[in-house]
């Protein structure tokens, strides 16, 4: 059970980046749909648990060391090649976005230059990916209970100090809606997008687990925890929709409303989530091309870290951000392939 909890915690830690923890993504994909957003959160929870279990069990069975080991087996050579390189590009792009986001957060919190904050996060990330995969799982998993605690405090406060009824807040939420898609389509795309984000590291983590049931339970636990976080943040924001409309970091605004100390703890949590996602993406990108045991792995980590820094300064993040919408659909194809492979009982090719 301990190993399953570690996998579940790491699964959450990979997905919960700055956008998730800040509340921005939750407003866009769930809260802006009013009460339908709650139903969407339940659909996403089921999807995260089911697909997480499937990825974990298949990866454990196939002993995967990178997403390449799995993607070609479940999709064939032609589709696998396209998916492989799309995922690799996406891993690098999200890592760059996290480094740039860290720079902006350090500037806002401490008044430091953006480039200095980015370098600090890159150095910390490089140092972490040079550890073994078990150490990386443990580090990423640590932040999950901390975030759950902070979010729970904010949720209780929001519900206890509501100015309007949920019906009135839902009307305000729907007026702020920017997507024309149905609530259930948006929920499915959000789930599949994030599966695309976590797929690579989840295959690496669970490929080192020899017990399929332990790995699968980790996927289920992670999915349920993700759903709990989505629901808690969604309810917190819906309860205070009249306050947080138009605010870039709504959860931080609510935290500061409680007390500046809670706001500071939330800021630290945001940095922790940025770090988790950066480590997950950076490590997954590197192991796609190099084995961690090779001396060239550390050299490549430093070199790619330097390229990431340059990319973040050059505005590369804007270009990569455009991949997010595409990744939702790519992730959906990935989800379908994973579920079919699991149902087929795919086995390791000797």
Automatic annotation (TrEMBL):
This is Transporter. The chain crosses the membrane at residues 33-58, 79-104, 110-129, 136-160, 183-202, 214-238, 258-287, 299-317, 323-343. It comes from Lysinibacillus agricola. Keywords: Membrane, Transmembrane, Transmembrane helix. InterPro entries: YkvI-like.
């Amino acid at each position: 059970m301990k190993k399953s909890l570690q996998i579940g915690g790491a699964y959450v830690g990979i997905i919960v980046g700055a956008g998730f923890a800040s509340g921005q993504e939750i407003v866009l994909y769930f809260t802006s749909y009013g009460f339908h957003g709650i139903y969407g959160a339940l659909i996403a929870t089921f999807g995260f648990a089911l697909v997480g279990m499937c990825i974990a069990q298949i990866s454990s069975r196939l002993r995967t060391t990178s997403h390449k080991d799995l993607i070609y087996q479940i999709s064939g050579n032609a589709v696998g090649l396209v998916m492989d390189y799309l995922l690799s590009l996406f891993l690098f792009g999200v890592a760059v976005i996290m480094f740039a986001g860290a720079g902006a957060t350090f500037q806002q919190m401490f008044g430091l230059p953006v480039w200095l904050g980015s370098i600090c996060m890159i150095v910390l990330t490089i140092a972490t990916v040079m550890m073994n995969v078990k150490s990386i799982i443990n580090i990423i998993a640590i932040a999950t209970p901390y975030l759950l605690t902070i979010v729970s405090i904010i949720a209780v406060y929001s519900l206890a100090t509501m100015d309007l009824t949920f019906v009135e807040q839902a009307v305000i939420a729907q007026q702020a809606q920017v997507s024309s898609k149905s609530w259930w389509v948006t929920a499915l795309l959000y789930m599949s997008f994030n599966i695309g984000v976590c797929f690579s590291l989840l295959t690496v983590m669970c490929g080192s687990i020899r017990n399929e049931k332990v790995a699968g339970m980790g996927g289920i636990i992670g999915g349920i925890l993700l759903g709990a976080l989505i629901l808690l943040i969604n309810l917190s924001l819906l309860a205070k929709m009249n306050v947080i409309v138009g605010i870039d970091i709504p959860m931080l605004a609510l935290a500061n409303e409680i007390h500046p100390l809670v706001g500071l703890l939330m800021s630290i949590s945001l940095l922790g989530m940025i770090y988790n996602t950066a480590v997950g993406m950076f490590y997954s990108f590197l192991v796609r091309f190099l084995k961690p045991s090779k001396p060239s792995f550390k050299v490549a980590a430093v070199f790619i870290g330097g390229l990431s820094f340059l990319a973040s300064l050059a505005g590369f993040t804007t270009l990569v951000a455009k991949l997010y919408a595409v990744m939702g659909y790519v992730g959906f194809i990935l989800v379908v392939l994973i579920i079919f492979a699991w149902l087929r009982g795919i086995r390791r090719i000797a």
